[in-house]
Amino acid sequence: MFFLLEARRFPPLKRKPCYGIKERVIQEPNVHFWNNISKPIIALSPMDGVTDPCFRRIVATHGKPDLIVTEFTSVEGILHGAESELGGLVFDEIERPIVAQIYGSNPESFFLIAQLVCELGFDGLDINMGCPAKAVSSKGCGAGLIADPPRAKAILQAARQGIDAWVAGGALPMVDLHPKIGEWLTRRKEVGQLPPSERRPLPVSVKTRIGVNRVVIQEWVSHLLEEKPAAISIHGRTLHQGYRGAADWKAIAEAASIARGSGTLILGNGDIRSLNEAAQRIRESGVDGVLIGRAALGNPWIFRKKSLLREALSHHEPELIPDEPASPLERLEAALEHARLFQESRPLSRFAEMRKHLGWYCKGFPGASQLREKLVRVRNVDEVEALLAPFLSEVSYR
């Protein structure tokens, strides 16, 4: 296998497309949101188990990043009608531009799901080639694809062919999709969530890492550029590092240099804790933007000064961006808003998933640690309101 990954048996690749349409000839990128979005791009990074529809809506409301990417969803899970996967493909108009991120190892599945992503009205399709979780990478998905460039390229080609089939006016291949998907689409139409009125091709992008067990950014990015993705987002760690150690921004800078002039944007990701750090990384690496992940947990406001970041970068000498953290009142009100939204849109049996978010909001004011200890046991929004009420009353008068 490529790049020193342990050899495993994956489904054989088909030598030629078998999707009922001609093999796609890669052309210059079409006009799409990646071309028109302000640069440098300050985007919300997809995070498994975090960037669900409720979290994304809160971030869009309070921070409005330039771009939002969903948490990754399994193409096989979607094909089998898994409600957890379909639920991740729900979005609100306020989130635009919104990109659906999917993962898997079977190109034929990407051909099918790319059509569904188009039908749902997303602005773009992102393919995860960077998840380091063993349950994902050991199956040749996520960062496991770094070790298998032919499969990675076949997946990109299949996704594009699926998009082309949809743009050409083809109906969704319902015979190949689980009946639950048809039922889900019907319910969406009943509440006014209709397919796009105009069939435009969606840009395809990739999120990946710098290698498997060593840095191979030059070889890997060169392989990806052969497929002309609209953008490549690069996390500055290898698969084997996971989230340990420091992100390697020199490798990300090398990727930006390799891609310069290709028409593919390069975004960096890893260890960005503030807009000042984002500005520094952009200036030093030459990337077209950054993805901010963990720094946005309980802090959707991190994006609201992005215009000042662009202004600071327009000057020859580095300038500090004023750091104005959210007030305790803003934090508590957002926590309550998030909890209410979660309970309105998700089964009550899953409310425990909201607890981590509540803990992230509650910091930076007296009694925050004691409040967090209680919030990890809440079962519904009524209990959240009861716990937050005295704190909201107190901070409102400060």
Question: Could you characterize the architecture of this molecule?
Answer:
This is tRNA-dihydrouridine synthase. Its cofactor is FMN. Keywords: Flavoprotein, FMN, NADP, Oxidoreductase, tRNA processing. It comes from Candidatus Manganitrophus noduliformans. InterPro entries: Aldolase_TIM, DUS-like_FMN-bd, tRNA-dHydroUridine_Synthase_C, tRNA_hU_synthase_CS. The chain has about 400 residues and is of the alpha/beta class. It folds into two domains: about 1-315, Alpha-Beta Barrel (TIM Barrel); about 330-395. The chain is built from 16 helices and nine strands. The chain has helices at about 35, 55-60, 75-80, 85, 105-120, 135, 150-165, 180-190, 215-225, 250-260, 275-285, 305-315, 330-345, 355-360, 370-375, 380-395; strands spanning about 40-45, 65-70, 75, 100-105, 125-130, 205-210, 230-235, 265-270, 290. An eight-stranded parallel barrel has the order 1-2-4-5-6-7-8-9, surrounded by six helices. Helix 9 (about 215-225) links the parallel strand 6 and strand 7. Helix 2 runs antiparallel to helix 13, helix 9 runs parallel beside helix 10 (about 250-260) and helix 13 packs antiparallel against helix 16. The radius of gyration is 21 Å and the shape is globular. The chain starts with about 30 loop residues before the first helix and ends with a helix. About 45% of the residues are buried. The model is unreliable at about 1-10 and about 15-30 (pLDDT under 50).
